Amino acid sequence: MPSVFQMSSRFTESPNARSKSITAADLETYGVLNRHSTNHPTFQVGVSEDKGSRRTMEDAHSFVVDFDSIRGQGFFAVFDGHAGKHAAEWCGSHFHEYLLAAIRASPTMPIPDLLNQTFHAVDASISRMCEESDGKIHSGCTAVTAFLRLEDASGQQSFVSPAVESPPIESPVSSSLLGEDESAAASSAVSSNESIGPESPSEDSKSKKKKKSKKKSLSSSRIRKALRSLASGSSAKVTSPTSISPTGSRKSTASGGTITIPPDDHRRVLYSANAGDARGVLCRGGKAVRLTYDHKGSDKQEAKRITDAGGFVMSGRVNGVLAVTRSLGDSSMKEFVVGAPYTTETELCEEDEFLILACDGLWDIINDQAAVELVRDIDDAQVASEKLLKHALSEHTTDNVTVLVVRFKHLSSPPAEPEPAIQSA
């Protein structure tokens, strides 16, 4: 069975990271990665990138409109690579697949927990790819992701029928990840809620190890099954713990699949997760609301975690090498530079205008509020992303720059304060 590294042979000889080409459709995207829906009723996406003054481009991005075949859902991400393009490019092609597999494996699990699992599974796959490359690949990347999810009042998706089958997403996960000897990614995802901080497990927790181990095994099996479904190109059923809402509806698409049209009274909840210093900022009534956390060596909390684990921070760098304290990949420093994300959960309201996801090539140049004010009057998401990019370049950023803007439309829910979740560990 081919290894993860053999699967990565699709990488070109170019040192520049390559995101999947952006295409456009009138409305239906069929889950295709990086395909715009030009007449989408609820949001618009714009992406701009440039290598800046660097010799190579190590950033990648991804988005999926109507994610998981539900009208109005979306997945958006920016990956900022270092020490090579491979980790960022791989994430740009596959991260969304891992999230979808996690959702289908555990449809009732809280989304922050699923994002946590996904980060750990992706981190394990990239680390394994690096280890199997015989030193040819040793890169890592920071990541900022956002999942716009539609929910009912109880936080579930009762309007989704248990019988609905979603068409497979494009570029399915390679079956090489799914063998008995290749299941580390799925297995590690299940342990994502374990502490990486200085605290040690209590004595009482030891008595729960057997039950915990059994739970991990079952969850790992579900994730592998979902990944296998994606890899085979078959449809996967979306399950729901509650009955179908009479106000929800399903629409058949030209591809033979179906898309769920949510009822008018649905809630729109924005879940974000990041590792490293790639950042997400929401514009709410003209005010910048940061949804992410910068994991840097200069952060006292992160520095303490690293020293408690036996490492050190010198000149703001982990072991004198890496400026970020959390990332995907970086297998040689995984004991200290972990892949556990910071997550937030925010119910969107009428005051929420747009979301900016970008790497530090932008945020090293402009602060959150200034970025929001720079593009607030621009209705076109693509034009807004281009303006932010040009600003960073004009101010002589020394890094690659990738900016993704999501402009929201037709919000009708009452105002609600953002609710940052407890930092995942």
From TrEMBL:
Residues 207-227 have a biased composition (Basic residues). Keywords: Hydrolase, Metal-binding, Protein phosphatase. It holds the Pfam family PP2C. PROSITE patterns: PPM_1, PPM_2. Gene3D superfamilies: PPM-type phosphatase domain (3.60.40.10). Residues 44-408 form the PPM-type phosphatase domain. This is PPM-type phosphatase domain-containing protein. It comes from Candolleomyces aberdarensis. The lineage of its organism: Eukaryota, Fungi, Dikarya, Basidiomycota, Agaricomycotina.
